[in-house]
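Appendix C: a fully annotated inverse folding record. The material below is reproduced so that readers can follow the format used throughout the book. The structure is listed first as tokens, followed by the designed sequence.
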């Protein structure tokens, strides 16, 4: 925090301009980024219609504990096979990071606030945030704009294997084949697991005839 930072910031979880993610029915409000929060992770998720996802199915592989607060509407959570109906004003705490969790809106206009962090170390942001910020452009097929968003928003995650891989896909789809291949090679150097993912990814089809593809992908 610097002296130029405002002493307090506010935003509306209900009305703040969201980012569409998933298939487009799920809206993300990047609360942490927009308020400049550094001490913990927090985001809001909105579903306009009952039956739409409001928390995507996932495990917290980085090891975070998570608290979910239903701010408006009602949500149906499933955590490791256990079903929980949660009304507005109630919270669900998932302590075990490996527990698979998801939630579906049980009423129209459901809003869930998620708060997460590590119990044994300081918080730091994760690379999924800049990837989510590019989702609107990716969904609209605006691949060059998606790459520009990733470049601008990646920050400390610019050298993450995840971000470089997604940049490779965006550049490949935009026709920037050399840039795409360079990003892909760097992504694999950082995270060798990206090699298997790249082998059959249709978004990388346009660069499979690049010199060095076989050596890079194996």
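Designed amino acids, in order:
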């Amino acid at each position: 925090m610097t002296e130029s930072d405002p002493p307090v910031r506010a935003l509306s979880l209900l009305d703040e301009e969201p980012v569409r993610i998933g298939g487009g029915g799920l809206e993300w409000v990047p609360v942490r980024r927009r308020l400049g929060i550094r001490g913990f992770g927090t985001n809001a998720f909105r579903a306009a219609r009952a039956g739409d996802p409001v928390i995507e199915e996932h495990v917290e592989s980085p090891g975070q504990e998570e608290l979910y607060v239903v701010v408006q509407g009602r949500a149906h959570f499933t955590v490791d096979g256990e079903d929980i109906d949660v009304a507005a004003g109630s919270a669900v705490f998932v302590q075990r990071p490996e527990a698979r969790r998801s939630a579906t809106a049980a009423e129209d206009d459901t809003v869930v606030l998620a708060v997460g962090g590590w119990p044994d170390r300081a918080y730091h942001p994760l690379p999924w945030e800049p990837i989510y910020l590019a989702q609107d452009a990716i969904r609209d097929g605006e691949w060059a704009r998606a790459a520009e968003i990733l470049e601008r928003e990646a920050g400390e995650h610019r050298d993450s294997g995840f971000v470089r891989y997604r940049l490779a896909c965006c550049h490949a789809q935009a026709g920037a084949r050399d840039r795409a291949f360079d990003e892909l090679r760097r992504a694999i150097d950082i995270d060798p697991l990206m090699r298997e993912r790249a082998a059959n990814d249709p978004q990388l089809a346009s660069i499979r005839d690049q010199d060095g593809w076989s050596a890079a992908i194996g």
